């Protein structure tokens, strides 16, 4: 083949590739998808590096998926003037992250710890797996990995089809229905509109999920199934809980010794899940004891008339609209506990204290 023919072949290949990519991108955008981000270990590590911002200019959040949904980051940052560093992890205990921050001599900022009882008060290995992997990735990430992350961020910001969590081949294959077999646990299929992520790592429900009660019932059934599976895990013993409380206190004391502030928060749950958590984890043995042993303030949604009424569409997480309202109320509750946001504007102060 002559050089001129090679050039034509190359040009044709580029055109066909561009048409394919453009068509694939158009297809997914026509389905209502927008640019989203994979909640990967690389994204978590990117946020973990931000905990060293000046303590009077940022607040770090750790926990599980509830605080990822329930904290509306734009609202938080607009009102408080504080940057929100979201380090919570789906389906995980916040304790590994707490221990990591406690042992980090450079961290002495504000820390909010979200408590979801079945995840927090458990020694089940699955609840610690993702935190340990993310922390290890952060500590060992290389310059090449950091560069790759920046390139991926640029591409994911412009192309919908690159979302690996929902639109990759593995993700699409994962949506194929699998027949349940006795003795084999098959992780339930989460409706895709239920959990989407921004680059800030804030999770949110798509409008489709908020409006579709069938999707909400599907998630409710999933929570019920996972709840039954969790019952087969050995519960934390009294000795395990004492160790957990003591270890948490040790980490919190280290953060405070460096000038940091720490507070526990219990975000809303409702319906059968909320009732089940209330019965399975009596406050006097778990929440109240956690605060007493660690000598730490806590904000429990049920203790405030303004937040006790929230109804979660699928029993466990707030809708985007309610997350905005809840975030405003949480800021007010933190201020009642003595937290100060030096960069809060007069306009924002009026907004957060007005009747909602």
Descriptive overview:
By secondary structure, the chain is of the alpha/beta class. It has a single domain, classed as 3-Layer(aba) Sandwich (Rossmann fold), CATH 3.40.50. It is 54% helix and 8% strand. A five-stranded parallel β-sheet has the order 2-1-3-6-7, with helices on both faces.
* CATH top-level class: Alpha Beta
For the record, the count of structural domains works out to 1
Judging from the principal axes of the Cα atoms, what is the shape? globular
| Average pLDDT score | 85
Record field, number of beta strands: 7
If strands are numbered along the chain, what order do they take across the biggest sheet? 2-1-3-6-7
CATH fold field value: Rossmann fold
Q: Keywords, please?
A:
356 residues, alpha/beta, Rossmann fold, 5-stranded parallel beta sheet, two-stranded antiparallel ribbon, 18 helices, 54% helix, 8% strand, globular
Short description:
This protein is an alpha/beta fold and 356 residues long. It is 54% helix and 8% strand. α5 (95-102) runs parallel beside α7 (126-140) and α13 (238-257) crosses α15.
Blueprint (SSEs and pairs):
Blueprint: H1 3-30, H2 41-48, E1 58-62, H3 65-70, H4 73-80, E2 83-86, H5 95-102, E3 110-114, H6 117-120, H7 126-140, H8 143-156, H9 164-167, H10 169-174, E4 196-197, E5 203-204, H11 207-211, H12 213-231, H13 238-257, E6 261-266, H14 271-280, H15 287-294, E7 298-300, H16 305-308, H17 320-336, H18 346-353
Parallel strand pairs: 1-2, 1-3, 3-6, 6-7
Antiparallel strand pairs: 4-5
